[in-house]
Amino acid sequence: MNLSSNTQKWLDTSLYPFENKYIQLDAGKMHYIDEGKGDVILFIHGTPAWSFLYREYVSSLSEQYRCIAIDHIGFGLSEKPDDFDGRPESHSNNLNSFIEELNLTAITLVVHDFGGPIGLGTAIQNNNKIKKIILFNSWLWETKNNFKSQKIDKIVNSKIGSFLYLKMNFSPKFLFKKGIYDKKKMSKKVHKQYIYPFPDKASRQSLLNIGKSLVGSSNWYQLQWNLLDKLESKPWLILWGTKDEFITTEYLQKWKERLPNAVIKEFNCGHFLQEEKAKETITEIKEFMKKDS
């Protein structure tokens, strides 16, 4: 079903020139883009992003591949229902339904940030449908014993945290910019496309919910980590921003130990490589896609 006529007026189609598609899931109406033909590359974003994060990847890679990028329920152009709990495990269930509905197979899965546990959690359940995995800065293990995560968790679950997230739109306005190392790479025009999807308090609940899940879903992350052997034999490409202040190179080291055969490329940039190092990482993805599984 295509509801592009209903697309928000703020959307800059010069930056995001794609046909908007929607699918009805149990949790709500999910927006996605589906461009090109060939082997499937499925892009999964984290917070406070949406499929806009992967716009340059879809534009370039759709010349050779079928590129699909979703917006999680509560994000981007997807529905923002009041009754959706917004936990990563629930987003993962939605992704599972999405893959089933579109009958996707031989998927190259691309994940980042919270999209890591969300996407990999789904991939573990659908390991026979996964061909390759591309990982940007992310994690897949317990967070409750991590000092930085504990600090963030206290703030997010406080009254001031609720105020910042729901009243001030803190996540896309301020935290997103903090994830950019070279500020020149983030124009006001582009930054607005991350702010506009969350115009009021009700629309920002998804940001608060997933923030609370950083530690709140700790046990679920660890469960997925324990099951990662179902995906370890797949070809992995890890693209890592070494100037990320939160998901640091310590996280990368843990991935290296668990996935010794992964192809790893490090970049002098922050959390959002998709904004700072799009061309360079697209080149790496093209090389990775050419290799036989």
Automatic annotation (TrEMBL):
It holds the Pfam family Abhydrolase_1. SUPFAM superfamilies: alpha/beta-Hydrolases. Keywords: Hydrolase. The keyword Transit peptide does not apply. GO terms for molecular function: hydrolase activity. Residues 40-278 form the AB hydrolase-1 domain. It comes from the Bacteria. InterPro entries: AB_hydrolase_1, AB_hydrolase_fold. Gene3D superfamilies: alpha/beta hydrolase (3.40.50.1820). PANTHER family: ALPHA_BETA-HYDROLASES SUPERFAMILY PROTEIN (PTHR43689:SF8), HYDROLASE (PTHR43689). This is Alpha/beta hydrolase. The gene is oleB.
